[in-house]
Amino acid sequence: MRIGILGTGAMAAALGGAWVRAGHEVLVGGRDVAAARRLSVSVGALGGGELAEAARFGQAVLVAVPAEAAVPVVVSLVGELAGRTLLDCTVPMAPGAGGPVLTTAGAEDSIARRLASAAPAARVAKVFGICHESIWTLSRPDFEGASLGVPYCADDPAAGAVAAELVASMGCAPVDCGGLDRAGLLEATAVFAVGVWWSGGEARHVFPSPALAPGALDDDE
Predict the structure, then answer these.
(1) Of 7, 119, 201, 208, which sits most exposed with the smallest number of CB within 10 A?
(2) Cα–Cα distance, 182 to 14 (Å, whole number)
(3) How far apart are CA 22 and CA 130, in angstroms?
């Protein structure tokens, strides 16, 4: 698949590298073209250039800029993004008195839905925002004997299919979490997980499988 990346930060580098390893063609775009070219070389992408070049190149286009910049960047590229699948990995987060907080209104408000409104001719999927960028640097993210589950939300079935295909190509398990009306839940989950990590805890310990509990299975079966 051809993938354009908007941004030159840690998520752009980690996911770009993962996609190159998976055999996809990647082009990095940034406001700083020199930084885009440096990142391209470091991850083995086809090249680096301006944001519009990456948007035009990709069948799928990753939005890997700070959450507050996502809508303005997408608005500036509306024409180039028409017909593309827009992958939103942003986490709308800011420091708060008790830990990180959402910068959206929560519930059905999300960066993903704002991007869908800003670029109605694109197909938006919320995906890749739950894990820390370091996870995507692993050659195959397996934990405790199971492939990493990667949740995604999309209103458009084609966008969901693209997200699922990319997840599977990285050796992970796609997890369909519904439409973009549920994308805010993924963003809130990411903020929650960051808060747990910052407090010194382990987010994975909060969600043990119900199947591990005594009596979870029917003893007669």
Answers:
(1) 208
(2) 25
(3) 20
